[in-house]
Specification:
- This protein has 134 residues and is of the alpha/beta class.
- It has a single domain, classed as 3-Layer(aba) Sandwich (Rossmann fold), CATH 3.40.50.
- Helices cover 41% and strands 18% of the residues.
- Helix 1 packs parallel to helix 2, helix 1 crosses helix 5 and helix 3 runs parallel beside helix 4.
- The chain is globular and about 35 Å long.
Length: 134
């Protein structure tokens, strides 16, 4: 099963997800795809086996992933302060992968029904969903 974690900016969300998954599933192979080298580096340091950076890496890995996890902005063109290109958003959206999107109510969008949960609670819920699929 190919699990791809996509994140940008400092990679904090992706890093936290990888650490949580690795804590319970040490043999799990995770792919860290950062929109910049800082995000990729943070996710690799958290324990991801594979890492790559940039638009093409996101497009290629979204195509054959079974699960994609990341902040909800990975499906919005120009999200994460412009780091999510329209091509990345389209590739993630078109991927056959099951998407686990972590709600972040920033950057001119609001996710109705999510309530006010902390980022750590949202990440915990996302990790629990992935664990139920393993």
């Amino acid at each position: 099963m190919k699990i791809t974690v996509i994140d940008g900016q400092g990679g904090r969300i992706g890093k936290t997800v990888i650490e949580a998954l690795k804590a319970k599933h040490k043999d799990l192979e995770l792919y860290a795809i950062g929109t910049n080298s800082i995000a990729t580096s943070a996710m690799l340091k958290a324990g991801a086996e594979y890492g790559a950076t940039g638009e093409n890496a996101a497009i290629v890995n979204a195509a054959d992933s079974d699960i994609i996890i990341g902040p909800i902005g990975i499906v919005f063109a120009n999200a994460l302060l412009g780091e999510i290109t329209p091509a990345i958003a389209a590739a993630v959206g078109a991927s056959r992968a099951f998407k686990v999107l972590i709600p972040v109510n920033r950057c001119n969008h609001y996710i109705a029904g999510c309530g006010d949960v902390s980022m750590s609670e949202a990440i915990s819920l996302a990790v629990n969903k992935i664990e139920s699929m393993l």
